[in-house]
Amino acid sequence: MSYRYKVASIFLIGFFIDCINIFMSAVALPSLSATLHVSSASVAWVANAYILGLTLIIPLSTWLAARFGSRNVLTASMLLFSIAVWMCGLANSFAELVIWRFVQGIGGGLLIPVGQALTFNLFQGEQRAKISTLVMAVALIAPAISPTVGGFIVDSSSWRWVFYSNVPFSLIAAGLSWRWIKEAKTGDLSRPDIKGLLLVSTALASLLMGMSLYGGDARTWLAMACIAAGLLFIALYLRHYRQSRHAIIDLSLLSSTRLSTSIFIYYAIPGVFTGVNLLSIFFLQNTLHFSARLTGAFMIVYAIGAFIAMTIGGRVYNRVGAKRLFILGMLLHSAGIVTLTQVNAPSDLWLIVIAYSLMGIGGGIGANTAQTTSLMDFNGSDTHKASVIWNINRQLSFSLGAALFLMIFNLLLKPFDTPSAYHATFAIAALVGLVPLFLMSQLNPAKANHEQQPD
């Protein structure tokens, strides 16, 4: 195996681990909520804490990799991840679980941006479309397998083993990183932007806290104060960015239409789907009384549709172009969400299959196209900087999607009964998923003209 495929393999394992953490833990949330006596809004912090850990460390990944070397950073990150995920399984309180999920996010937050930057610098031109398809294919294997396996674990054992099962994969990633990575440390280092890091992390924590509180049992003024604080810290970071020479997140890279459009698409498709899928899990288990195993099995339907769509999309990307694929992906994905609004009883199993099939096909087209398009304009060190932005966005889209639609659902529970609140939330999600259609006119339909590399 050539060096670049060894690097790609490590990155793909890390990406697989990251997806497992999102989808396998999601199917366990109703059981975890009941065991630890927390509300559906509060239990979302199992995901939010992981996202915050990622957000804290991802912007530092460039400096850490340059200071200590990619091999050392990737190996240490996966060892820390292994320890944290084991402690998540041992947690005896919700507070302990949230704390260790935060540490787990710190461990996992280094492998993906560092591994992605190393991989994408080794694959240029049309080869990036091929490696992006591999990345998204692995990202589909995880959602296909992990919810079903997670559902089986929850039904037959305990939610704790949902976390324990991550350990073998993270240890494999640590061993391969130590054995295969040959990147040297960089001598010229700029001081990391700690102030910018704190502003970004505080802004995200405040926004997530505000959305988690709003519509729940907390006072409205407290939720609004958290959201206002989040917006304030965003404004402070923007001012800091204009005054800093080495800001932690280089916003100038967002002038790339491909990157900025791909970011919006990720909020509209994978981000929206994360929130819809989380609500669907509670709807199917608590309202329709499906087992965790059956609930998780619908992700197999999603993954089959997405895998077929991504395989075709990866082959036609350079002929059809990102714009048409983005539009098709959004329309199919939202059609699937609309189908969920028609599910009223356990006998509507075929409607759920259609819904997850459409969401899978649309999601596969949209996510794969966004992954391929996002870093097309960058090379060298800019690839790593853009990878930081992309991976913060990717993780943030999952967390904000879950928080936003849980908030909307809790608000709709006041005027509607529970099934109607679910249906109304799904309808709103379908509309939100179509918002980037208004941005398609600014996406250059011309194909990227990169030099093609041999395999």
What's the order of the H and E elements? HHHHHHHHHHHHHHHHHH
Poorly predicted regions are: 446-455
Instruction: Give the overall shape.
Output: globular
Distance between the termini: 11 Å
Major sheet summary line? none
Question: From the helix content, strand content and strand pairing, which structural class follows?
Answer: mainly alpha
Number of helices: 18
| Count of all domains | 2
Q: Mean of the pLDDT scores?
A: 83
Radius of gyration: 21 Å
Please give a quick description of this structure:
This protein is mainly α and 455 residues long. The chain is 78% helix and 0% strand.
Tell me what the structure shows:
The protein has 455 residues and is mostly helical. It folds into 2 domains: 3-181 and 248-441, MFS general substrate transporter like domains (Growth Hormone, Chain: A, Up-down Bundle), CATH 1.20.1250; 193-247. It has helices at residues 3-27, 29-36, 40-43, 45-57, 61-68, 70-90, 94-122, 127-156, 160-164, 167-180, 194-213, 220-243, 257-287, 292-320, 322-340, 349-374, 381-412, 418-432.
